Amino acid sequence: MRAVVYTETGPSSVLRLVERDAPEPGPGEVRVRVVTAGVNPTDWKFRAVMGPTHDEVAPGQDGAGIVDAVGEGVDHLAVGDRVWLYLAQHEKGIGAAAELTVQAADRVVPLPDGASFDLGASLGVPAVTAHRALTSGDVTRLAPGALAGTTVLVAGGAGAVGNAAIQLAVWAGATVVTTVSSPAKAALARAAGAQHVVDYRTEDVVAAVREIAPDGVDLVVEVAPATNIGIDLAVVRNHGTVAYYANDGGDEVTLPVRQAFAKNLRLQGVFLYQVAPPLLRAAAEDVTAAVAAGALRVGDDAGLPLHHFPLAELAAAHDAVEGGTVGKVLVQVTEA
């Protein structure tokens, strides 16, 4: 099989295309022929900063493909099933940037009929992160009506996680406000389904959000807490939640303690690699339900433009994500 691997920390040039023997699934595992892999910021950050956790690493936490071998004890998946993957490279050497990958069966999820491999490979990190952020407050599962009567502020609605958060929140019945940095990104956020869009470069975010939600928003899905914590505290309601999943804009947050505890504020970090397995399974089930309902989509009309690269150009795909490409970067690993 072909795979793209690295054996040392460094720039994207450390990635190289190799031929390897096909891995065999053990008990509780399945082997998936990867059709499409998704590239996320975590992939290039691990490659550039963390270095390999095994002798060699084929990166990629997200992918979609077809089950082509099943290990002992797996009874809910069969050869030929179309599936999507999450945390495919976590604690493993071979992730989604390989033609064949062996995965624990609980990280391999049936892909609903009619859903493309592009969509399947775009779920994983963005959608599961968005689900965990949206369920960090008073709601534990997402389904139609689960967020009815609530208002959610999604910071950075044109990003992949922001896009998924908008779509999932709208599907669950929330009123969604999102912040963006340009008219082009505003158009993407509206395509994702956001009912209200605020350009933080040209508008007073606090005033705009307070006009929409005079009593404050119930939940903030935050990508830049170091920059935005003052805004978040000003717009969140009493007993509200700020769920943050990234460190855009800085690594440290200065929190006005009295203002925060006076609102009974909850701060919830979201880091998928440490999320408990039952919560991951709940997210995978709810995300799959949203896909089956047609509520979670990708592409220009869903506010998430797609950018495709062949497997041999994984380095260029990593560079595109590191460079801030707007939309979702995907890698074609094998033919559908």
Automatic annotation (TrEMBL):
Top EC class, one word: oxidoreductase
Keyword entries, A-Z: Oxidoreductase
Key word Oxidoreductase present: yes
Enzyme Commission number(s): 1.6.5.5
Name under which the protein is recorded: NADPH2:quinone reductase
